[in-house]
Amino acid sequence: MELRITTLAERPELEGALWGMKDLWPEFMMYDPVGWANMGQIVTAFPEYVLVATDSDGKVVARAFSVPFQLQAKGRGELPGTGWDQVLLWAFSDLRHGRTPDTVSAIEVTVDTSALGNGVSHVMLAAMRDNARRLGFAEVVAPVRPNGKHKEAASAMHEYAFRTREDGLPVDPWLRVHVRAGGTVEKVAPASMTIGAAVEQWRQWTGLPFDTDGPVELDGALVPVHCEASRGYAVYVEPNVWVRHRL
Fold it and tell me: C-alpha distances in angstroms, 36 versus 88, 110, 141, 168, 236?
């Protein structure tokens, strides 16, 4: 598939089409409060770190978001257990306080449903690495959402993340793409994203009753949602897997 990949800074006119892509994200994933508050600001705060891919007809078929942050700032130094949420908060805090970033974190790679099955995600990950290198960074980290984990939500992420095939590559397809690109699976971020809401809201998002206390498995969820129906709320705490890419 022929692609043209540039930063949003180079083609700001594509911002509308970038958000208009058709994707397969479960609806409940759109309501992480950290993402809700910050994702939309990436395009204006960090356009050099937003990649957009168009096909031969000029249609936007993929996007890749990353953010710069200072991993070695006081009180940090380690990749956080609160993964995806935390690097977003760090990136915008560092921007406000004028801290010089030393690391780039991947935030999202999304492919339009019309372009799935063409290896576009592999190309976008490689382009993200190249873009970080071009911007002077020596490392990209990624709080990876393993795309096969939802098929076995009850399994522990700490076991699944390090499960390998006979060839030594990860069993999970998206982790495998990262490793083939040069990444190293480092550790699990057990609370990478947290989504809490009243059971009425979960019912709207999923069409499920959410009327019993205990775990609820959802399509697209990596672990079960913890439902406290008797108290009127449910919480999803998603684990991700930290992958480190040396450039």
Answer: 11, 17, 22, 37, 15
The set of long-range contacts for 176-180, using a CB threshold of 8 Å and a minimum separation of 24, is 177/121, 177/122, 177/125, 178/125, 178/142, 178/144, 178/243, 178/245, 179/243, 180/122
Query: Crossing angle, helix 33-45 and helix 83-97, to 10 degrees?
Result: 50
Structure pTM?
Answer: 0.97
**Three-class SS state of 120:** helix
Cβ contact 72:141 at 8 Å: no
pLDDT digits (tens, 9 = 90+) for 102-143: 999 999 999 999 999 999 999 999 999 999 999 999 999 999
Query: Distance between CA 235 and CA 189 in Å, rounded?
Result: 17
Residue 196: pLDDT band (50, 70, 90) is: very high
For 26, the token pair is 């479960």
Would you say how long the chain is, in residues? Answer: 247
**Exposed/middle/buried for 90, CB within 10 Å: 0-12, 13-18, 19+?**
buried
